[in-house]
Amino acid sequence: MANIRQPALPFRFASCGVIAGANFTPQLAGGATNIIVTANTLYAAPLWVPNLSYLTMIAINVGALVAASNARLGIYKDSAGYPGALVSDIGTVSTATTGLKKLVPAAAIKLVPGVYWPAVVFSHGPTVDGVSQTSNILPVLGLTSNSDTNNYAGISVAFTYAALPDPFTAGGAPVNATFTRIGVQL
Known about the structure:
This protein is mainly beta.
């Protein structure tokens, strides 16, 4: 799987074994689709980290901009299948231009084996790379029913754009629609 590339966000599959310096997305994704995100919504998707790793970059890809807009990215620890304590609020990127928007933390962030939740909140509603819930993700959060192929892609919750909360805002719901794709480099 090390040679598989995804369009726009140059990140490989996650949950398969971490190769130092490789790029991953929480969702297994064969191709990007566009999604207009909702401002003031905190999005997070589960990422399995099977061995000791260091997060050295986090990114989103903006397809259609919104003037004077931003996104704030970070990563959370898992808390019984829901984002819990904040590991790091990595910072802010402008979504006022298109293209890959990446942040490099001041120091690599140590991640011990387990589940983590890369997260993003947007000040406005740009179009970003997303992943469809129907076939491009592993059903880590489950399916919407036993008879269909709609996977839950991540968790979203209302949150006014600001520094990331610690812990993650309670009351979020699993999303079974196209979901924003957040890339990380481990």
